[in-house]
Amino acid sequence: MSLEGRELILGVTGSIAAYKAVYLLRELGRLGAGVTVCLSEHAREFVGPLTFRTLSGRPVLTNLFDPQSPDAVEHVALAERCHAVVVAPATANIIAKAAHGIADDFLTTLLLAARAPVLMVPAMDGGMWEHPAVVANVATLRARGVTVLEPDSGALASGLSGKGRFPEIADIVESLHRVLTPARDLAGERVLVTAGPTREPIDPVRYISNRSSGKMGYGLAVAALRRGAAVTLVSGPTALTPPAGAVFVPVQTAEEMREAVLQHLEKATIVIKAAAVADYRARHAASAKIKGKHDLMLELTPNADILAEVAARRTGAFVVGFAAETNDVAANARAKLEAKGIDLLVANDVSRSGIGFDADDNEVLLLDRWGGARPLPKMRKTAVADAILSHVLSLRTAAPRKTPA
Length: 405
Fold this sequence. Notes:
By secondary structure, this protein is an alpha/beta fold.
């Protein structure tokens, strides 16, 4: 992956992870990019300008208001000629300033002046990433087209553990490459995605559900949007923010999901059923909370098979299903593919830790109805989403194929 000829601005802000920006700068330079570093005032408390100047071979931008600096009015010209602005690490403070258009130093002024794509790489401590203010600011930036990466989870500088770690350098570079060379190969496509779990009520406070965070389905929706598709996302209840630009249809139960999918099916050219739909529901849900600590007998009845119904009722759409398996993954997935009458099935082993449910990574097997099998190694769900979409396109264009009746 080359970045030869690319002019980048690397903004570094006041996080303990600022030292990792040195490794990012070195990798960007190795890939051929020309990088100008802009340090915030607090970033200089962690890593000095000399380190960045030595590695970049360029002056480091620091003080917008220094009258002795020849760079004092450089921000406009620099912003106009760069191919992308990367803010890494991006603190909660810089995210808030960018979201609200505050320009009180060199970096924030650059962000307002830049017309190039912006990639923000968050790093923060404690529960800051989940704070409502940060969530709202990230959503605002994403709605404007800024790419904001998800931070990694793990041990943090404070000794706490949670989501907020600086992502791996390889993941940042991969995201930058996608920002710089966005594919538009789904332009004209209408993609219908389902995501998340469904909830089948037992009584007003209890329900039957599946373990699903919705991350895979939301990742597919985001990837399809970025590649030019018109996207409808039908989602069960999740903690995720709906992607800007998608038609978002929130549902609770399997029947509500079925109705929403069938309502949008006619116009869809690609249907991706990534939701974990509950297989059963209570035949008679109680109208009041069930009391007591006694044994409880529930009579369950199957929910409609939405995937099979979509395959039977489509009018030319390419249909993708998912299979969460715990054993004999390939055999069980192949049987499901044939039983449902779909074009492609994405299978993964949810008994393994670190992939599948609630995780940011996945490792899947792609099985198609023409006998093909393609394993994908463990990678970010965002990368899996792109790989699935690319595989759909390759299967559709390999040869004209009649959709099964």
